[in-house]
Fold each of these.
Amino acid sequence: MSLDNPSAPNDLSAFWMPFTANRQFKANPRMFVAADGMYYTTSDGRQVLDGTAGLWCCNAGHKRPKIIEAIKAQAEEMDYAPAFQMGHPKAFELAARLRDMAPSGMDHVFFTNSGSESVETALKIAIATQRARGQGTRTRLVGRERGYHGVNFGGISVGGIVNNRRHFGALLAGVDHMPHTHLPENAYTKGQPGHGAYLADELERIIALHGPETIAAVIVEPVAGSTGVILPPKGYLKRLREITKAHGILLIFDEVITGFGRLGAAFGADFFGVTPDLMCTAKGLTNGTIPMGAVLATAEVHDAFMHGPDHLIELFHGYTYSGNPIAAATGLATLEIYREEALFERAADIAPYWEDALHSLKGLPHVIDIRNLGLIGAVELAPIEGQPTARAFQAFLDCYDKGVLIRTTGDIIALSPPLIIEKSHIDQLFGTLADVLKTLH
Ligand code: PXG
């Protein structure tokens, strides 16, 4: 096919879609063609309420004029600047803004282009930090069952989702996993569950098994999102911090979902009052508009590299698009919106209404658990016997038909709306979901 003879726009065959049942989708496609505020517009002209902020990323809602203007202005001024051995002002400005909003001590920012790249970057920095400190035997990484850290090799190695791992060979060597924190006795807890802080002590077992001098870092999501919203029991993250510190192990928080106001604070680290050594971010950093991620590091981590002759590269890592000008401009505009509209505080203010509306689904058919924190919600359904995921996926399709976008993982419905959500949207979201649950088989 030549370029002056483009194929019809309804040819769906070429695009191999990510994390999608391609054949099912292409037989019956669902297309968004526009978005504004809390709503998407479908190709057949319907309005669909965004209950998931895209994929947990459009925290300020859609089509924000400030972001659009920033992208236009930057594209006109300068499209790209080399990321290695050259700089441009907006990358430095964005890094400084991130440092200023991060937990104190997280003073340095390494730019990436996605959550997956932030994870790879943090894992590599962690191992290299230990080596730079003269702790070169510390090469092991510890993740957690049901953890999601993106889809690159490091991320799926420390991650704990079997389908994301089993098809891809031997993965990274020297990785171990803590148990997840989803306990049946915490079912229907509103907010952070009370039971299970003891699960952090499993890390002591792993440390005793391998020897602390072999372990570089532990990585966890403060709240596990992708595997269906698994919350940290009260005291759990503090305990992880104490144990890692006592054994010279770095703690990495993967804040790709919990960053930028999702819990009603800038980061999960702020919400839980626990500061890690490294923090992975992406998604909400640019409101999902332009791909960008960032790893935040403490001064201790950063300064471990700042030795040797000044003219030598300290860290052999980076991407062509690290700190890309248009992404940096988008990030700056996004952070300005968060600040001007106090969106993190807004999320905290509306979270109790969200919690009550969500938990009002208790008792509806098939519902076996409900979990929430900040502007995150999950409704777990009993699977249809012999057909795991089918019931929740049907709920997704039915909600979409009724004008509401939800997200499902397994038989769990996960919700994470833009932080600009109003009470009327919350009513629409849970009203529709309740109607759907009542008619599901
Ligand atoms: N870490 C965490 C904690 C994530 O949630 C990533 C890393 C990877 O980010 P990128 O930008 O490489 O995709 C994520 C991504 C869902 C869903 O529906 C979640 C993610 C992505 C897509 C869908 O739960 N999280």
Amino acid sequence: MFDALTDRLSGILDRLTRRGALTEADVAEAMREVRRALLEADVALDVARTFIDRVKERAVGVDVVKSVTPGQMVVKIVHDELVAMLGADAQTISLAAAAPVPILMVGLQGSGKTTSTAKIAYRFTNRDRRKVLMASLDTRRPAAMEQLATLGTQTGVATLPIVPGQSAVQIARRAMEAGRLGGYDVVLLDTAGRTTLDEALMAEVAEVKRAVDPHEVLLVADALTGQDAVVTARAFDEALGVTGIVLTRLDGDGRGGAALSMRAVTGKPIKLVGVGEKFDALDEFDPQRIANRILGMGDVVALVEKAAASIDAEQAQKAAERMRKGQFDLNDLKEQLGQMQKLGGMSGVMSLMPGVANLKKQLAGANLDESMFKRQAAIIDSMTKAERRNPDLLKASRKKRIAAGSGTKVEDVNKLLKMHRQMADMMKMMGKGAKSGRGPLAGL
Ligand code: GDP
């Protein structure tokens, strides 16, 4: 799975990383190719579109961070957005409920539901040392009940004895009762599947759900069916409310679209993936790891992360130095304004640098725009050296001179001085915390 996508993406991104400078057009062109690659991997159209928009938005002005190339920055952004698309954090099945914890397995016939039930039981039993009971609720297919019983024997997991003639709800209740009496930790209920979605199936599963109030409702879907798996998941979720997805056959030769779109389309986390027919062929779905695997560029991502961290540290240290000296004059303010002006056009990259990003947030109320930065810089440029170092010198006549010199109004000069005072106060306050060794900006 993902192989074709990996080939395509690494080709596109590799070309980007080898370029010295990138224009917006370069990024746009690369993103067109990424979009095509995603669509060919069977990613849902909306998901691909949103992904590209987000990457482009973040990538604007990407060339400002030193020690990494703009292309490398784009790789990092693509990586981050891929992780976000896959669901950010790895999530697993929760057993945090009173024992026996009921878990309902739902899905279409042939999706790998029964196999996944046995795999999960096997994992809980052997890895987590839980006492597990499995029960098949497939009243229409005796073969399905037999299959689960066989899997139970093979995995060494208990299965509920088969009593012919009972309804799905009766079996589910009996399973919970047996679970309570037998001191089981978990009861896995393997519901009946159909080859297609139908109302009778949903109604039956919904009835079982009401009867046992499961702690998890896990939808099993076949990754090889691509977008159909996503559509199925959405339908099950709307009808039943699922808590997570088990995506099977990730070991197969599919394009990966289901794995890539599932979270974004359904809003439900993929909790486990099936990667083979054996009982232990079950993996956690870790968005970070999958993104690394898909991009095959973990080293570039690590490099950019390191560079961003060191820039953050460097800036924090410089500011800390000024603070330590008890200085934050108008020269410093101008430098800060210059930095923010630079950063104004690269909001995406900023999010990599927590200290700076937060400083900007802090000042966002000041309505930061390009012309304002220029005006403020002009005001400071119209001051004498002595005035910049000691703003207290600025009485009415000097302010008038500065306003005239910078083509602004006295009111603008006052605003700038007020902003400086506030920043100086803030820095003084933060400076008291700087003894801890953290720079003031790092704490902002
Ligand atoms: P059910 O009808 O949904 O219960 O489907 P089954 O559990 O009977 O699975 C159908 C077939 O798919 C069986 O042959 C399983 O061995 C196979 N299968 C299930 N999960 C996986 C998987 O993750 N990878 C592979 N390669 N095969 C799987």
Amino acid sequence: MRCFWDERQRAHVPQGEFFNGKMHAAAEHRGRIDAMLDAIGATELPDDRGIEPLQRVHSADYLDFLRSAHEQWVTAGREGDAFPYSFPIVRRRPQAFDRIDASLGYYGFDTSSPIGPGTWEAAYWSAQTALAALHATLDEGGAFGLCRPPGHHSGSDYFGGYCYLNNAAIAAEAALASGRERVAILDVDYHHGNGTQDIFYSRSDVFFASIHADPATDYPFFWGRADETGEGDGAGANLNLPLVRGTRWPEYERALGTALDGLGNSAPDLLIVSFGADTWGGDPISHFQLETADYRSISTRIASAGLPTLVLMEGGYAVEALGANVAEFLSGF
Ligand code: OKP
Ligand code: ZN
């Protein structure tokens, strides 16, 4: 399986994240990259397909914000990473902002996702990596994009959950733009892919299925319940399968069967897998109990759907096992 990766994805160097009332070392750090690169071997560089594929998913004002946010932060006299700290709890309306503080809270939904001087560059090349792997998949039936930063928590006009650009959504839109009629996205990260869900919630051409920790107990808390099934044209095209903390392979396998049946019924031309290895038992921020060998079982089941399949990296924070878990997952294809 061809693997894509660009060294410019290292430019995002989060200085920390805020939760439980204090700063912690960033879970989504560059050590993850080396763990994965060591395990998967040779990678290829993405081409630069420009901003247009990003614009199919993200609003122009959000892209302008993301590109300039850290510079605005510095101009405002701040040091270190730009962090949101005040959020519009009431429903938002479009408005112009003069303060970077306001923009950060408007476009960001948590305090885990700092914007540093290299965040735009890294997120841009993470998205280009997804696009390169998409085109390899369209040509050859499958590929892996080592996306970092990840993407599935980012919506059309928001960042959060270590995600700034939604790589899976950008790949899905590019596939549609190049003539595919229907795409399915299967999200097997531990956390619900709220950004991807939001982007396609009222669309019938992109089916979204997600297996994740129940938002009753886990981040991102405000999305991911089973009764979120899509709306308008997208009614029935969103399938959430929340699972309890402590989930092991037997229960996971049942949910995977349900997800594959659901997305199979949508008759997609292409499957995009948002893959997180944070379902592993030893993950430092997550609470499922999958084992390394289970990743091959998951991917074997996915591969048996017989669809062209693009795998994109999302989370996975146990650096000591990340390489093995990713390699095990890819081995099933
Ligand atoms: C990103 B992905 C830790 C709080 C951190 C952010 C989690 C982001 C997960 N207790 N919250 O889906 O792997
Ligand atoms: Zn995750």
Amino acid sequence: IKWTEGRGWHDAQLVPYAPLSIDPANMTLHYAQTIFEGLKAYRQPDGSVASFRPEANAERFQASARRLAMPELPVETFIAACEALVRQDKAWVPSEGEASLYLRPFMFATEVGLGVRPSNEYLFLVIASPAGAYFSGGVKPVSVWLSEEYVRAAPGGTGAAKTGGNYAASLVAQAQAIGHGCDQVVWLDAIERRWIEEMGGMNLYFVYGDRIVTPELSGSLLPGITRDSLLSIAADLGYEVAEGRISVEDWKRGNEDGTLTEVFACGTAAVITPVGSVKSTRAGWTVADGQPGAVTMRLRAALLDIQSGRAADPHGWMRPLGA
Ligand code: PMP
């Protein structure tokens, strides 16, 4: 779907996957005016296909558009575009286990010019790719690197938007994490370099027995839809759930005195991933016994059961797509 100044959205088309031709002076290549979303379509027990909270993805896409001075796509147009693609590609929606069809809606500037200003033309696209179970040999805890040198996002910046620049800014820290033998980077706040924000592509949860805490939306972390859903699911299951501030010292101390029993990360791709160990330039520790915890696995099963249609959907999160 195209957007042109003075004309709005027009020319919705369903076309075979193919390369795009881009002008060398396309503004996106230079000024990164680009946003995206990630959501999944799941095969339901009756053979139909449904996606998980696509309205929430559509609304976050609108929020990202506002932050990047881009036009907002109506929620129903966003969902209709996903639905048109899923109808076409229905055969590609897997039926086994945790597999799904990953949908990637995105929008970028298409105007040609070298001046730094919002583009007058945009293109919105959706592509899809079948996604197998994230863990092939059973759930495996990840090791994380606390990034003290680099920050992903600062107050007033674009951290709460899903825009390419945030991910470009994170690549060097992710490479450092790998260099230190860790799987993922954990970001701290930009001002004090003390408060836990999020992981490279997932939000974090800290489990203290029956009490579960996730870092509050500081303005510089992505408001994850899995994070938001777990606030409700955990409460439904009887846990005490809160959003709050958690510092590196809190994490270390809770681990030492045994009050912190589990840490996990959550996001669309991996659903829920236990965090097994932590490393930084100054310290390193194993989270509890380093194994997937009972609360982590219980929440993971509860969320997957809703997404795959095996459990009731008390919050009305599943939306039929391309039935
Ligand atoms: N933080 C970042 C930086 C991400 O890229 C993602 C993945 N979209 C998340 C958190 C988790 O968000 P969600 O649960 O909506 O997938």
